[in-house]
Design a protein that fits this description.
This protein is α/β, with parallel strands linked by helices. Helices cover 50% and strands 15% of the residues. It folds into three domains: 1-56 and 430-453, Glutamate Dehydrogenase, chain A, domain 3 (Glutamate Dehydrogenase, Chain A, domain 3); 60-191, Leucine Dehydrogenase, chain A, domain 1 (Rossmann fold, 3-Layer(aba) Sandwich); 210-368, Rossmann fold (3-Layer(aba) Sandwich), CATH 3.40.50.720. A seven-stranded mixed beta sheet has the order 9-8-7-6-10-11-12, sandwiched between helices. A five-stranded mixed beta sheet has the order 1-2-4-3-5. A hairpin with a 2-residue loop joins strand 7 and strand 8. The longest helix is centred in the C-terminal third of the chain and has 25 residues, at 400-424. The radius of gyration is 21 Å and the shape is globular. The two termini are 24 Å apart. The structure holds NADPH dihydro-nicotinamide-adenine-dinucleotide phosphate (NDP). NADPH dihydro-nicotinamide-adenine-dinucleotide phosphate binds next to helix 9.
């Protein structure tokens, strides 16, 4: 069997075993295809059955979460944690609270996390978890009661040297606080078991900003490769949560114009960009009040387009230089990609995880659009989570400037790794292939070193 046949045979086996898990299969297909050149060149990966092993989680835990709502009604949700790969460090990856959560989505996120974490150069394995609990419209007490019950099972499986969860969609500072408090009460230990903690009890400066800032630093490297930067560029952002907020802040700081934001109900167009005052309003509406973008739009006199995605709204208004998806998976499909290319988009940088469908990615690449893949571009969040773990272990705290500099250096390094491997394996400039291979070889070699477990 040659390398290409081996890759196809593993994709087929994974498909047969996980037929229902479409997002997981999408992620596996994307990653494994780009690994073909390294599999061809290095027979050891086939010999040690690395692809079969790396696509099967080391452990998956699925559990019932029962909690009481404000009316005294019992509610039942499903919680899960997928501990995918611990070859280079403790499992590490976020927890997502969203009604769409199922095993296929958590497995796709956990699988991607393996390579992303390896790219940061920090010692972190890959994992992911969450629940189909919907935080929208829940009172603070309901969110707390849910999370206490969620942690009453999760605590058995995690620990500072075992598995260190963080935030993701629906999980920010408030949620991390409730989970940390519950964990500490159960195990009677104050330890760095979660990242994204508040500053006064073990958090790191720059962690909330890290994914958005990091993706913008990565974008700057992409633009630099074409001899340009963000000044005067029109940037279409999607989402208005943690990643989008801090991407918007950094893009504006570096001279770009943020022309769109969105949430699950619709999008806004900002002809003159996002001012500091408007940004403060977005932060207050989404991060503090957990409210709707439409309320923010009304307050600031901005048109809100219900049910429309950011790409259509941006392209309908004219030029779009950069697309910066920062909401959720598969939010840019082929039609959206065509609209963006027609609108003159020169770069796509993925703040969200797997926001572009496979055919959209292909369309961007075929049309010469610079493409910054999620597992490289949005690795800043987990990188600073890794730095939070280091600070917790050392019992000290670095300054804002120190952490920001380390984040910047890590993002430049991740970009250079993608570039290096894209050239080494004959596809110069293909950052998707280069980043996948760069993350893969580190993990795969560690798996071989550690034996056939
Ligand atoms: P948040 O919950 O803070 O924000 C998510 C945003 O996306 C909200 O504006 C939300 O709208 C919108 N959204 C969520 N689901 C959908 C959907 N199905 N359709 C349309 N819009 C949707 O999450 P984050 O900002 O933390 O995460 C955004 C993305 O970035 C995710 O893909 C996540 O996996 C990824 N990511 C996050 C990291 C982090 O550090 N936080 C690290 C790396 C990646 P609404 O408010 O209406 O729900």
């Amino acid at each position: 069997m040659n390398g290409e046949e081996y890759v196809e045979s593993v994709i087929q086996k994974v498909t047969d075993k996980n037929a229902e898990q479409k997002e997981f299969l999408q992620a596996v297909t994307e990653v494994l295809h780009t690994l073909t050149p390294v599999i061809e060149k290095e027979p050891k990966y086939m010999k040690h059955k690395i692809l079969e092993r790396i696509t099967e989680p080391e452990r998956q835990v699925i559990f019932r979460v029962t909690w009481e709502d404000d009316n005294g009604e019992i509610q039942v949700n499903r919680g899960m944690r997928v501990e995918f790969n611990s070859a280079i460090g403790p499992y590490k990856g976020g927890l997502r609270l969203h009604p769409s959560v199922n095993l296929g989505i958590i497995k796709f996120l956990g699988f991607e996390q393996i390579f992303k974490n390896a790219l940061t150069t920090l010692p972190m394995g890959g994992g992911k978890g969450g629940s189909d609990f919907d935080p929208h419209g829940k009172s603070d007490a309901e969110v707390r009661r849910f999370l206490e019950n969620f942690m009453m099972e999760l605590y058995r499986h995690i620990g500072a040297d075992t598995d260190v969860p963080a935030g993701d969609i629906g999980v920010g500072g408030r949620e991390i606080g409730y989970m940390f408090g519950t964990y500490k009460k159960i195990v009677n230990r104050f330890e760095g078991v979660l990242t994204g903690k508040a500053l006064n009890w073990g958090g790191s400066l720059i962690r909330p900003e890290a994914t958005g800032y990091g993706a913008t630093y990565y974008l700057m490297e992409m633009l630099k490769s074409k001899g340009t930067d963000l000044k005067g560029k029109k940037v279409a952002l999607s989402g208005s949560g943690n990643v989008a907020q801090f991407a918007a802040e950094k893009v504006a700081e570096l001279g770009g114009t943020v022309i769109t934001l969105s949430d699950s109900k619709g999008s806004v167009y900002l002809p003159n960009g996002l001012t500091k005052e408007m940004w403060n309003g977005v932060y207050e509406t989404k991060a503090i009040k957990h409210g709707r973008l439409s309320d923010w739009a009304e307050k600031f006199g901005v048109d809100f387009y219900p049910g429309e995605n950011a790409w259509k709204i941006a392209a309908d208004h004219g030029k779009v230089d950069v697309a910066f998806p920062s909401a959720t998976q598969n939010e840019i499909n082929l039609d959206d990609a065509k609209k963006l290319v027609d609108a003159g988009t020169m770069a796509v940088v993925e703040g969200a995880n797997m926001p572009s469908t496979l055919d959209a990615i292909k369309y961007f690449m075929d049309n010469g659009v610079l493409f910054g893949p999620a597992k490289a571009a949005n690795a800043g969040g987990v990188a600073v989570s890794g730095l939070e773990m280091s600070q917790n272990s050392m019992r000290l705290r670095w300054t804002r400037e120190e952490v920001d500099k380390k984040l910047h250096d890590i993002m430049v390094n991740i970009y250079n790794t993608g570039e290096y491997y894209s050239k080494k394996y004959g596809h110069p400039g293909d950052l998707l292939l280069g980043s996948n291979i760069g993350g893969f070889v580190k993990v795969a070699d560690a798996m071989i070193d550690q034996g056939n477990y």
